[in-house]
Amino acid sequence: MTALAENLERIEDAIAAACRRAGRVRGEVELMAVSKTFPAEAIVEAAELGLRLFGENRVQEFQTKAPGIAGWRAEGSNAAADEPILVHLIGHLQTNKAARAAELFDAVDSVDSLRLAERLNEAAGKLGKRLPVLIEVKLSPEETKAGLDPESAEAAALLERLPDLENLHAQGLMTIAPWGVAEDVTRECFRSLHAWREKWAAAYPRLNLPVLSMGMSGDFELAIAEGATRVRIGTALFGKRPPMAAQMKAYPEEPGE
Prior knowledge:
This protein is α/β, with parallel strands linked by helices. 40% of the residues lie in helices and 15% in strands. The protein has helices at residues 3-21, 40-48, 59-65, 98-104, 114-127, 153-161, 183-203, 220-225, 235-238, 244-250, and strands at 30-34, 53-56, 86-89, 107-111, 131-136, 168-174, 211-213, 230-233.
């Protein structure tokens, strides 16, 4: 058994146990394999183990990987495409990369402004596709965290406008809990996202937001306890990532990233 297979087995056991403790069914929680910084070969190996949902952080990085997994995607030509994988953009997206993101990814889980949503809607329309999106909500005081302030006018404007963006399919919310905090603080972050989903569902009845994407390698069990429907796991699955300097050398930033 490979290291990846062992990690996946361990994670599946942990997700199942967390669901049991929360009185939930295992099928209520999707596992997203966060493959950022790992090569296309790692995605293929994970796909061969049965994983079908992947998360990537950067447009440029995934653009270099896409040819290596083409046969596993819906537009691929080999047998693997009978059960295609889906790749979502989960990292911050600049508006000037919206067109390329709409083309490359199966969904964008990090919509954090009305302007970005409008750009994605326009790009998806030109491609003849309806692009699934999540709204990224900032519930941590850390300045490095992206996302919408849920109490801001920008959030209200986006929620009001989203149902009219016909080439986007708003599916739910995403957040990242603060790093290195007490368990009760992490739980409160996840509980807050759930509460905002319920509040917005009542205030904006034209929106249906069933997906709550929250929880990563270090806190996914807490997220499941607080209602996560999707957990994003990278390090616990693929292993330790290369240092940031090595990442930047492999995938240097382009203007606007």
